[in-house]
Amino acid sequence: MSTKTAPAPSDTASDDEKAKGGGKKKILLIVLVLALLGGAAWFFLLRPSGEAEPEAVPGEVLVLEPVQINLAESHYLRIGVALQLIEGAEELDGSKALDAVIEIFSGRSAEELTKPAGRHKLKKELSHALEESYHGEVMGVYFTEFVTQ
């Protein structure tokens, strides 16, 4: 009995298959090199220099007298604030800050003020208003008293 065996598969791929695999590798290598060159060009040429504005240095803290503010539904808020001034800021009048506090907190619900997220949102709004009112001489605001009833 004679049996024929199938020829063993060759370990080497045909020339066409080699050319296709090598072409894909070349394209991938070119794309990778271009991405690296683009990233390096951005890093050295286009990124922000970081020298545009120097960081403000904290100066004195101006503590203002607490005020009572009417809230919604016959509640009230007794709030005290302190302003973090930048170094070299001239003596500031606190009336603009107290006006902003009254404007922002008046008429709010006591519920809104007792939640940390609500207080944080209003503090951020107050900080923004104070930066504008004092033309950048106030860099932060702190609550020194915060009582609702």
Automatic annotation (TrEMBL):
GO annotations of cellular component type: bacterial-type flagellum basal body; plasma membrane
InterPro entries: FliL
Coiled coil: none
Membrane disposition: Single-pass membrane protein
Locations listed in the record: Cell membrane
Chief site of localization: membrane
TM segment ranges: 27-45
Keywords linked to the UniProt accession: Cell membrane, Cell projection, Chemotaxis, Cilium, Flagellar rotation, Flagellum, Membrane, Transmembrane, Transmembrane helix
Chain intervals for the UniProt region annotation (Disordered): 1-20
Entry-linked Pfam families: FliL
GO terms under biological process: bacterial-type flagellum-dependent swarming motility; chemotaxis
Family indicated by similarity: Belongs to the FliL family.
Function field: Controls the rotational direction of flagella during chemotaxis.
Protein name from the UniProt record: Flagellar protein FliL
Native organism: Nocardioides psychrotolerans
